[in-house]
Amino acid sequence: MSQTAVIEDITDARFVDEVLMSDTPVLVEIWAEWCPPCRQLAPILEKIAAERAGSLRVVKLNQDENPATSADYRVMAVPTMLLFRGGKPVLQMVGARPKSHLDREIDKALA
Predict the structure, then answer these.
(1) According to DSSP H, which parts of 3-66 are helical?
(2) CATH architecture, range 8-110
(3) Which one of 7, 32, 35, 109 is the catalytic residue?
(4) How would you write the pLDDT of the chain (111 residues) with one tens digit per residue?
(5) Is 38 labeled as catalytic in the residue annotation?
(6) What's the predicted TM-score (pTM) here?
(7) What is the CA 105 to chain-centroid distance, rounded?
(8) Domain spans, the chain
(9) Closest by CA position to 77, among listed 58, 87, 91, 92
(10) Is 35 part of the annotated catalytic residue set?
(11) Looking at 10, 19, 28, 38, which residue is catalytic?
């Protein structure tokens, strides 16, 4: 039976607690409502979240509503995905990409 994972929406105010203080690696998608590639990426990230439930959390941060975190990590385009491990960013990917590519990059960064 496959686990289901919900991709949480987080805010600037919850970023430290939800991402930087997490014991589990966290993949943060920085997105915007008006961004077509962000919509393309959504089902891919849902699959990754479900497949890696328990070993990786996947969260979303709306850049338009939460500009501070985007500024802190110098996010210049959406979607941007940041992978955090132990409170530190270990990977940054800009733009939508196939699931196989995301899986490969995540595995490499967490190895």
Answers:
(1) 12-15, 36-51
(2) 3-Layer(aba) Sandwich (3.40)
(3) 35
(4) 345 567 999 999 999 999 999 999 999 999 999 999 999 999 999 999 999 999 999 999 999 999 999 999 999 999 999 999 999 999 999 999 999 999 999 999 999
(5) yes
(6) 0.93
(7) 13
(8) 8-110
(9) 92
(10) yes
(11) 38
